[in-house]
């Protein structure tokens, strides 16, 4: 096995940081486009709630397949190059979702969208960890923050598309074309990634050492975030008797605080240290759970959302950053394991 080491350029303009931010924004933007149009996809194909739920599983199934299959490919091709390839492929897959007019075609399109998105998710975290190592300072929190910014811009752009009377297929085609162009523009400035010439061994390696512990942290963090986003509105309506409109501010508060903390989290991690930040994060999550389960008014739920966001915001960036430094597994396989658990 041989490893080709990338250039050790550490200047701000050649650290690859701006390109890493662009990749995270790009993925968030494309995923936000898809998420905002889910109701339109359902109506376009004429799906029942149950059928739509099953088809959404194909998107996750495609991502899981990517995590299982592409870890070694990221190590061999290089994270930067693989990220651009995945971003370009995802930009091309998005219009296919808009064109699908049957359950079968939509299922195939969603599997491909999930696989390309999963490949980009994994590769860009590897590239982000490499950039962070080059810069010798915490950087991944801002990258994850840019994903949230991209998601908000992508989902919010539905308003612009409706004003321009763009249908779903047209919006997906325009967005995919623009994002494909941006991905190709980023490519010449990508810093070369470490590449491994190993061709033997299993495609997916079960996490070991530090990576196993980090995988558990990622699983808890993503499950917690998902539970907050999926169930807070239901809890407010069915548990507290609040109106449907009362749930929207709770999710908005959670999302805004998450973005602000992730964009500013690198400085906090550099000042306090990752272990101390994770400890404090755990305390905030526990406090949020107590407030949530004892709150009897929407205001209490809103406070719980602030605590949850403070607790969850730094966990994923810190885990991916630690995986990049662990040395227990190659970066591609380590990020594949973390992404799969997440």
Give your account of this protein's structure.
- This protein is mostly helical and 342 residues long.
- The protein is 78% helix and 1% strand.
- The chain has a two-stranded antiparallel sheet with strand order 1-2.
- Helix 6 (103-135) packs across helix 15 (331-341) and helix 12 (274-294) runs antiparallel to helix 13.
- Residues 1-13 have low confidence and may be disordered.
Brief description of this entry?
It is built from 15 helices and two strands. It is mainly alpha-helical and 342 residues long.
Distance between the termini: 29 Å
Helix content: over 70%
Number of helices: 15
Structural class assignment: mainly alpha
Mean pLDDT over all positions:
83
Strand line-up across the major sheet: 1-2
- Shape annotation: globular
The count of β-strands is: 2
Q: What summary fits the major beta sheet?
A: 2 strands, antiparallel
The Rg value, from CA coordinates, equals 20 Å
Please describe the topology of this protein.
Elements: E1 3-4, H1 17-36, H2 38-45, H3 49-69, H4 71-77, H5 79-99, H6 103-135, H7 140-156, H8 158-163, H9 168-186, E2 195-196, H10 210-239, H11 247-272, H12 274-294, H13 298-312, H14 315-326, H15 331-341
Antiparallel strand pairs: 1-2
Helix pairs in contact: 1-5, 1-6, 1-7, 1-9, 3-6, 3-15, 4-5, 4-15, 5-6, 5-9, 6-14, 6-15, 7-11, 7-14, 10-11, 10-13, 10-14, 10-15, 11-12, 11-13, 12-13, 14-15
